[in-house]
Write a structure and sequence with these properties.
This protein is of the alpha/beta class. The chain is built from 23 helices and 50 strands. The protein folds into 7 domains: 3-111 and 191-204 and 368-434, FAD/NAD(P)-binding domain, CATH 3.50.50; 112-187, Alpha-Beta Plaits, CATH 3.30.70; 205-367, 3-Layer(bba) Sandwich (FAD/NAD(P)-binding domain); 456-556, 3-Layer(aba) Sandwich (Rossmann fold); 592-703 and 857-928, 3-Layer(bba) Sandwich (FAD/NAD(P)-binding domain), CATH 3.50.50; 706-855, FAD/NAD(P)-binding domain (3-Layer(bba) Sandwich), CATH 3.50.50.60; 936-991, Alpha-Beta Plaits (2-Layer Sandwich). The strands form 16 sheets. It has a 5-stranded parallel β-sheet with strand order 3-2-1-11-22, with helices on one face.
């Protein structure tokens, strides 16, 4: 199908964090996106969590558009998403899909919300009169809700809907609603849409802990699941973040976490990937809620394999005092008199554990939603044996049906960061399939000329029915507003959020020739999007709009203080009027985006990124320092799943070298690079030849390398090799498996120690792969794997099981008692303490195989210096945000992927490279970049050139003009954070739209 015949619309199924990310990436690239979900709002499971490892903060907002942020209303994503290219379809499921990739016809069924959100003002009167109370599923049934309600406490206030299963149709809410927004007679709606591609992002559900009857869930009051415990610790939960026991409301003195509930067992022989880290986070939050609580985690392996995850484990253990006991608890009992829980178990070193805990948390695994199997049949895609979507190892986001892609836990249990990486990769695959129609024109700037006009302000006061007017004297507020400097119009309206009302107001603005507007109403997260859309349709400027939160910030917090509320409202409106009157049009000029991208590194990630960008029609310059492309992939001959990496490499190299859009530079290095998003200049050097390039985006794919062990007699005996060297010998036939009697493998060589406190992620997979290969070649070969924690996360767990079934023996060792290697009379000897026996085990292997760390390239430091990027403590590149911006840097226009960021597998590196490519294409697809209206500037008369502000800027937006001796601002890089203003000792730095004159004038007006 030709590109011109392919639909430009995309359907995203599932509005969780992965669906949001995929939708944003596609919308920013110019696609129109429909995002549907069977729930009434977006966010998925992540909305039930407040913080996440490894930094214990909420960062959802960081994934909002950064390339063209002003095109969307950027409020907290927990409250909603407003983007001109995204249409949310709540309460909607897919009924039928027909057609082919590029031209799907999709039938959707939408259940009625029962509440017209365009009319709803979010006053909440409906829920106050509703007589029905049922268990609140958002809080896991820990409290009650009404039949008409908002699903979660941080949702936009007008996000009410009706629970039809429990609604009695009594009509009380209809009678009470002041804007007639409720309709109990609404019926299901069937709609047909055309979509060029589909992204499946349905997420997961928590394993039903009732199936594990040995743990007494819902029989014992003080046994909770991890999600329930999360809601308990949440400030927005039913206990406002207090740690309590359900049986008596008392603060528990001890809490136990039981891991692998619903995972790593015969019926679900996979690891849910996140449970260990999730338990660590909740343990830390519990200690923060009550420092005296005793917290113990019962576990099989601590799978802290993600970036910074092992450090997080060390923090929980060493800083917060969380205890760890390695065993799987077979059963627990409740003591009826006290409600305490008795745990009896035996550790893997044979010790009997008998402890009482006042609260027990079950770390439940991830399972597909119950509706997922039916959805899979509707979409015509294959599922795996566990009910997740089937994907390929080298095509991690492709389903079995062309044009249908998947991301996140719909295909396997995943963390937030891996979900967002796959979401970006899925968006990239959609873009490759549908190919954008060309460069996107810059958005219209309809604020021109306002700076030359006399300030004329229009003020609109919303009564919000009686929600505001019953507390605030709105008539008095209107009269007060008319007397303010610069105000040419002031009026009150019953409901500002209604479109008919807004359309009339836009006409009043035109008649009064107002060029500045103040909207005193409810939170802009409710009415902001509607107001901006109305302004856009009316052809009015969105640049000079001020919001006063009159309802939530005044009326609702001063319900019994009418005089105080009115006085506060006057102050807020006066301050807004001053800010509007003194507001100046941004003089920032757009910067043009240069075509093409520079990809640094020709390994797997670099090749993938280059191909993904070129397939979307953009020129790529691929730089590789060695004489061959392929990087580490050249030394990998098979995968744990049995695929052929060498064929993958051969096909990719051929595709890259034959692609006219890709220019390959071998034996070449980047010796100089600088610039900013859309406008980078680089110098490449190969032997004595230099090449100058100008590109719009940069992708760092410099890879990593295998650590060369300095212990275990490595390099002193030819029978001591690394996993990579063993694989090479097996592939070449140099190692005769038939004549091999005993092989010992040692894990975590150079990883998870003081020097490198991180997990290298792939070492356990390598060991399992090579062990199974040896067993396949010679089942009689004895293999011992000496390990600390096996990191066979996700579906890799099945191969761990296969290895044990094949006779591979796993012996755990403690870091304080590492295996000892020596040579006696020409024979290798390995000594290790076996925990179950408590005695030293002496092995005499034919081969000793070390699993060494993955370490960063030495060149990372110089490249980071040239581009103004940060490195982690370990020397890998440091992304902007490990969870929500996993391939971005704080410096716009530069992206990273693969081992340059952290160790990861082949499939994970491919997905990350595709995600980075899509971020680059989002930038390259724009004709120009419009700086934010709030940017810093410098008063050159006051600037002393001290340069204090330069290192203070996290975005590298400030440089010294050596000719003038002052600092200047690169507006395209500035994010308006204000760090330079606080750092400047002379007051020369200031923010447009937050000038000193404005701020002081606002303070005077407020007083």
């Amino acid at each position: 199908m030709s590109a011109k015949n392919k639909a430009r619309e995309v359907l995203v199924i599932g509005a969780g964090i992965g669906g949001i990310k995929a939708s944003l990436d596609l919308a920013e690239s110019g696609f129109k996106v429909y995002i549907c979900d069977r729930n009434p709002d977006l966010g998925g499971t992540i909305l039930q969590m407040d913080k996440w490892f490894p930094d214990n903060h909420c960062g959802m907002c960081r994934m909002l558009p950064l390339v063209a942020g002003d095109e969307s209303v950027q409020f907290c994503l927990r409250r909603g998403l407003n983007h001109p290219n995204i249409k949310l379809l709540p309460f909607t499921e897919v009924e039928r899909i027909e057609g082919e990739a590029g031209n799907f016809s999709v039938t959707l069924r939408s259940k009625p919300l029962g509440v017209n959100r365009e009319l709803c003002s979010g006053c909440g009167q409906c829920t106050r009169v509703c007589p029905v109370e049922v268990a609140n599923e958002f809080n896991q049934g820990l409290d009650k809700r009404k039949a008409i309600y908002i699903r979660h406490p941080l949702a936009a206030a007008n996000a009410y809907f009706i629970d039809w299963d429990n609604c009695t149709r009594c009509g009380a809410c209809v009678e009470k609603c002041p804007v007639r927004a409720i309709d109990l007679d609404q019926q299901d709606e069937i709609k047909e849409i055309e979509a060029g591609a589909i992204v499946l992002s349905t997420g997961f559900e928590e394993f039903n802990a009732q199936l594990t009857t040995q743990y007494g869930y819902q029989r014992y009051d003080n046994v909770l699941t991890s999600i329930e415990f999360e809601r308990m610790l949440s400030p927005s939960g039913p206990w406002q973040g207090k740690l309590v026991r359900l049986s008596d409301g008392r603060t528990p003195s001890s809490v136990a976490f039981l891991q692998c509930v619903g995972s790593r067992e015969l019926s679900r022989n996979y690891c849910s990937s996140t449970c260990c880290m999730y338990a660590l986070k909740e343990a830390i939050l519990a200690k923060r809620a009550n420092t005296d609580v005793d917290v113990t985690i019962f576990y099989k392996d601590i799978r802290a394999f993600g970036k910074d995850s092992y450090r997080y484990y060390l923090e929980a253990r060493d800083r917060y005092g969380v205890k760890f006991i390695r065993c799987r608890v077979p059963v627990i009992k409740e003591e009826p008199q006290t409600g305490n829980i008795l745990l009896i178990a035996r550790t893997d070193d044979g010790k009997l554990v008998k402890q009482r805990f006042e609260l027990v948390v079950l770390s439940t695994g991830q399972v597909p939603p119950p509706q997922f199997a039916g959805l899979g049949r509707t979409l015509g895609i294959e599922l795996n044996r566990w009910g997740f979507c089937q994907t390929g190892e080298f095509s991690p986001v492709k389903t079995s049906r062309e044009g249908v892609y998947v991301c996140g836990s719909a295909s396997a249990p995943k963390d937030i960061a891996d979900t967002l990486i796959e979401a970006g990769a899925a968006a990239c695959q959609v873009s490759e399939l549908l190919r954008p129609s060309g460069i996107q024109p810059a958005p219209e700037n309809n604020a021109g000329g306002l700076a030359d006009e006399e300030p004329r302000t229009a003020v609109f006061i919303c009564r919000c029915g009686e929600e505001v007017s019953s507390i605030v004297e709105t008539n008095e507020l209107v009269n007060f507003s008319k007397k303010l400097p610069g105000v040419v119009h002031a009026s009150e309206v019953p409901y500002l959020c209604q479109r008919d009302t807004l359309n009339k107001l836009m006409e009043e603005v035109k008649k009064s020739r107002a060029n500045r507007m103040i909207f005193a109403a409810c939170s802009p997260s409710i009415c902001g999007g509607t107001i901006y859309n109305a302004l856009k349709e009316a052809g009015l400027s969105q640049a000079f709009v001020e919001f006063v939160i009159l309802r939530e910030g005044v009326a609702w917090v001063h319900k019994e203080q009418r005089a105080a509320a009115t006085e506060k409202a006057r102050s807020l409106v006066a301050m807004a009027a001053e800010r509007a009157r003194l507001q100046q049009e941004s003089a920032a000029s757009p910067s043009f985006v240069k075509s093409g991208a520079l990809v640094i590194g020709g390994g797997l990630s670099g090749l993938t990124a280059a191909l993904s960008i070129a397939e979307q029609g953009y020129e790529v310059h691929l730089v590789e320092k060695s004489a061959e492309l392929g990087g580490n992939l050249r030394d990998i001959y098979s995968t744990l799943q049995g695929n052929d990496p060498q064929k993958l490499l051969s096909d990719m190299v051929q595709s890259v070298e034959s692609n006219a859009m890709i220019h390959v530079y071998k034996e070449t290095q980047v010796v100089q690079i600088g610039g900013y998003a859309g406008n980078f200049e680089a110098t490449l050097k190969s032997n004595d030849r230099e090449v100058a390039l100008q590109v719009g985006a940069v992708i760092i794919a410099t890879g990593g390398r295998e650590y060369q062990p300095d212990g275990y007699l490595y390099g002193q005996n030819e029978r001591i090799v690394t996993q990579r060297e063993l694989e090479k010998k097996l592939n070449s036939g140099e190692l005769n498996a038939e004549g091999t009697g005993l092989v010992v493998m040692i894990q975590c060589v150079g990883s998870r120690n003081k020097e490198r406190p991180y997990c290298s992620r792939i070492c356990c997979h390598q060991a399992l792969k090579n062990a199974l290969k040896l067993k396949q070649l010679n089942p009689e070969t004895q293999i011992f794997i000496l390990y600390r924690d096996m990191m066979s996360y996700g579906f890799m767990e099945e191969y761990y099981t296969r290895a044990r079934e094949a006779g591979v023996i796993f012996v755990r060792y403690e870091p304080s008692r590492e295996p000892q290697v020596k040579v006696e009379q020409g024979a290798l000897k390995v000594e290790v303490v076996e925990p179950a026996l408590g005695s030293r085990l002496i092995l005499e292997p034919d081969w000793l195989v070390l699993s060494p760390a993955i370490i960063p390239q030495d060149s990372n430091g110089e490249l980071a210096r040239m581009l103004g990027l940060d490195l982690t403590e370990d020397g890998f590149f440091k992304e902007a945000e490990v969870k929500f911006r996993p391939v971005d840097f704080n410096k716009d226009g530069v992206f990273a992927c693969g081992l340059a960021l952290s160790p990861r597998s082949i499939g994970e590196a491919i997905a990350e490279a595709q995600a980075a490519a899509q971020r680059a294409v989002t930038l390259l697809s724009r004709e120009e970049l419009q700086p934010s209206p709030i940017v810093a500037e410098v008063n050159e008369r006051w600037c002393t050139g001290c340069e204090v502000c330069i290192p203070a800027c996290p975005y590298g937006a400030r440089v010294k003009d050596r000719d003038k001796g002052v600092v200047v601002v690169r507006e395209a890089l500035c994010h308006g954070c204000g760090a330079c203003v606080t750092a400047c000792p002379s007051g020369a730095a200031k923010l447009r739209r937050f000038t000193q004159r404005q701020v002081l004038s606002m303070i005077d007006a407020g007083l």
